[in-house]
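User: Predict the structure for this protein chain, please.
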Amino acid sequence: MSQRLDFWQVVFLRSALLTIFILPAALARGGVATKRPAAHFGRSALGLAGFMCMFYAIAHAPLADVTALTFTKQLFMVPLAIVLLGEAVGWRRWGAVVVGFLGVLIMVRPGDATFDWALLAALGNGFLTAWVAIVLKQLSRTERPETIVFYFGFYSALLMAVPAMLNWSWPGGWDWGVLVVAALCGTVGQSFTVRGWAAGDASVMAPMGYVYLIHVALLGFFVFGEIPTVWTFLGSAVIIAATLYIALRESRARAPAAVAVPAPAAAE
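Assistant: Here is the predicted structure, written as structure tokens:
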């Protein structure tokens, strides 16, 4: 789509269609009323900025590289949790963060002559997505998932409306089809993610996300002829190992300690 339509227009249409698709589910679950519009707006601004970084990165860099760098979300969540939530972090997780960013350096290679700014945008997506996750943790205490997704699409479309109109060109029939399918997949994907994390244990769910990298690498090869480099494989392996370790450490830290309960005394 980035080869045929303006950047702002694609982001606007994707957000508007997401809003339309999630609205019936939101209405069925109690409507879209909220007492925290400012929090929704802040979450939407962060999420929109992250999506724009992702869109730019996908348009200018190999899909496998971009996807691997977005997994840095788990790395960024460690310092953000300290700053925004006041959480305490041990040396093991800090060590995993350092190792993970070594994997980033392997992929991005900042001293290389072929350094691509699109990879930096993908890294920015990881940071902003981590920030969104912190905000979502706070929002989810009072807001339903459908309400959160609805306001993300609504505010994102509102913020993108003016730049999209200034650069508007009518999409063709094929373009509309791709936009609708992409927005529908995004809406359903967010729903699956919310439900999956609600039903499954973190230690089981965390590795599932990395299947995404395999899918994207295959699609990049068969659709665009992109062949991942050895730096992609090496950096991805380091990032995945570090983020998986952090996820497992968090899962164990949150697991309630087993408490032995004495058996009730038999009735006399």
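The chain has a mean pLDDT of 78.
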